[in-house]
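Input.
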Amino acid sequence: MQKRFILTALGSLSSLCSLASAQAVMPVSTGSELRAIMPVFSQLLAFSYPKGFVPVFEQAKNGSYIQESVLKGESVQRWSQMITVTGARGLASNPEQSPLRFASELAAGFRDACPDSFAVKDLGEFKLGRHDAFSAVISCGYVNGPAGARSESALVIVIKGRQDYYTLQWAERGRPSQQPLSLDDAKWSGRLKQLAPLALCPIVPGEAAPYPSCSAGPS
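Output.
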């Protein structure tokens, strides 16, 4: 199993797994909280950046974007928690795609990788300003790879932008289990709240970080 198990299941992004590290977008303080506001293709994606994480990897290639953050002192090879942002350029123009279907395709990749220990929890559809979104928790109780046997679970948020699709993922690794993990609703709903408020904003020509036009909320 490759080191980025969650993204490997995402098919179109699996080719990015072997790319070298690049300079990542740094989160910025906006007063009482730490915010990550980053341009991803046609829009700015903003979310609350949990304490203790540091960006370690960023890459855009062939219509796909990925940025990863891990806890301070960890790496993209060995981590206990990871926050990942992805983008898929132009996918919003596909009338057959939806945030729910996108998440279902991701969940199917997990299920294929760990059919005996797969688990999923639907957190439901919601609106992010004008944009459709969906969130779920997807889990494999048993994954075996270079980092050793482990479990891997992720909160996955899928957002349909004006032109592109985005995901925000908060993953964790734990002790391996041959059985499906019990996914605690309070824990994962709490993590969803920790990432809020989420926003998609237009890119203002000439505006530089920290992108003050996006601090007011979604557009």
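The chain has one domain: 5-17+57-214.
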